[in-house]
Specification:
Layout (H helix, E strand, L loop, with lengths): L14 E3 L8 E7 L2 H16 L3 H8 L6 H29 L13 H14 L2 H64 L16 H30 L3 H48 L12 H39 L6 E4 L5 E5 L2 E4 L3 H21 L6 E4 L1 H4 L3 H14 L5 E5 L2 H6 L6 E7 L5 E7 L9
């Protein structure tokens, strides 16, 4: 078992003792130790801080060894729970099972009705937003068709010019080769050589014919060199063609995002009708006529049904808000982590996470992409949780960091430094290479190991930027 007894960590030099996780504030590097030791440290530390709260444990130690899809679903649900999903689920359960409020006070408070009115006003903007977005999408598609046509013409022109240059180059090479053979024959045969044109012996005309052939050969070689440079130049796509290709890719990526936005807006339209119905029922329920007894035998059941529908709509809204917040924040972190190569993130229709690049959205393909996605998702959840009032005293990060690309690791350490305003203590399992590359960004370095008796230990030392004082 790993001991977590505290040892003094304030000394400037390294100290060796029982494994200590009670370090000062800042970013700590945990290096060394085998897989089982790391797992035990992670598990014990997370359980101690989270106090058996599964959601807080996910915030502190991550979702465990799961794939991007499972981690994404868990993060969305946890964030929605921290914004009120648990209370809504309890209310829905109470309504479905008869509710404890039957025959009691009014189901809708004044603040609840006002909230419904605000929600209806917000949802009534959906149709116009949908029309505007659909109009933008049509314009984008028209632009894409125009750019696609220009791209096709430019590509054909480039291919034609390149083929023309290659044809001329081959022709000049053949002619130069032919003239070189004739020159070689004349030089070997001397003045007794027959003229290559009229078959008469050259005799005194030998030098003049030889000079003419040499000049023609040099001219052909010179022209061939020009066509060689022209062909080499055309082997690379011209800048205007590259610009058109980039514009086309960006347009298609924007079209895909706009299409998803249009579908999302269209899918929310039924919420408007549902919210209007719920508001109408709530307004009827708060009017003085609600105490009338005639013809009202079935109203309690109707009210419970409308309340259930309203709560389910609120539940969908909480999940949707959590989804959008995580999408935006994860995309921003991943964009920084990949130095701009990834523009954002999304989800397919079957719930599989995607990354958005210049060429459009696609599913995660490599282990490095999955690691970067999970790392960005983890930072986004910690960041958004703090905005909901849920603050983790410390967090640990491990396997996903190890699987990042070398440059991404340096950027990841920079992101962790910025996250210290949200979490006072961040512990990062990493290897020695990252410490060699950027030791000044860590406040503490803890070397994990196992002694000869098989007991784990930790060597703790301060790190960070040093101060030089001159007296």
């Amino acid at each position: 078992m790993v001991s977590v007894d505290s040892v003094a960590t304030g000394a400037a030099g390294a100290k060796e003792g029982p494994l200590d996780l009670q370090l000062g504030a800042g970013l700590t590097a945990l290096v060394g130790g085998d897989g089982p030791l790391r797992s035990e440290v992670m598990d014990r530390f997370a359980r101690r801080l989270a106090q058996d709260d599964e959601r807080l444990q996910t915030l502190i130690a991550g979702p465990g060894t799961v794939g991007p899809a499972h981690a994404w679903r868990r993060a969305v649900r946890i964030l929605a729970q921290w914004t009120g999903l648990d209370g809504v689920d309890k209310e829905i359960s109470a309504v479905i099972h008869g509710g404890s409020r039957a025959g009691g006070d009014s189901l809708w408070s004044d603040s609840g009705v006002e909230g419904l009115r605000g929600r209806v006003q917000e949802l009534r903007r959906l149709p116009e937003a949908l029309r505007v977005k659909a109009r933008e999408l049509r314009a984008l598609r028209a632009d894409a068709v125009e750019v696609g046509g220009d791209l096709e013409v430019a590509n054909m022109d480039w291919l034609r010019e390149r083929q023309d240059a290659e044809t001329h180059l081959l022709a000049y090479r053949d002619r130069a080769r032919e003239l070189k053979v004739r020159l070689h024959q004349l030089e070997e045969g001397g003045s007794d050589t027959a003229c290559p044109t009229c078959d008469r012996v050259l005799s005194e005309r030998f030098e003049s014919v030889l000079e003419v052939l040499r000049e023609e050969w040099e001219s052909v070689v010179q022209d061939g060199s020009w066509w060689k440079r022209r062909k080499d130049q055309l082997d690379l796509k011209p800048p205007h063609l590259q610009d058109l290709e980039g514009k086309s890719l960006r347009l298609h990526a924007t079209i895909e995002e706009s299409t998803e936005e249009v579908e999302r807006l269209r899918a929310r339209l039924p919420e408007l009708t549902e919210a209007e119905d719920t508001l109408a029922m709530a307004q009827v329920g708060e009017s003085p006529s609600k105490s009338d007894e005639g013809g009202r035998a079935g109203r309690p059941t109707d009210e419970r049904d409308l309340r259930r529908r309203a709560l389910e709509a609120l539940r969908r809204e909480l999940l949707s808000d959590a989804f959008e917040a995580l999408t935006d924040r994860t995309g921003r972190y991943l964009n920084h982590l990949t130095s701009g190569r990834v523009l954002g993130v999304g989800v397919t229709g079957d719930g599989e996470p995607t990354i958005v690049r210049d060429e459009g959205a696609r599913r995660i393909q490599s282990d490095e992409e999955a690691a970067a996605y999970l790392f960005a998702l983890r930072l986004a959840l910690v960041d958004l949780a703090a905005g909901c009032g849920v603050h983790a005293p410390e967090i640990l990060l491990g396997d996903t960091f190890d699987r990042l690309e070398p440059d991404a690791k340096l950027r990841a350490v920079g992101l962790l430094r910025t996250l210290l305003v949200r979490v006072p203590k961040i512990l990062l399992f990493c290897r020695g290479d990252i410490l060699d590359a950027t030791p000044e960004r860590f406040d503490w370095i803890v070397e994990l190991g196992v002694d000869r008796r098989g007991f784990p230990y930790a060597r703790v030392q301060r790190s960070g930027v040093g101060k030089l004082r001159i007296h």
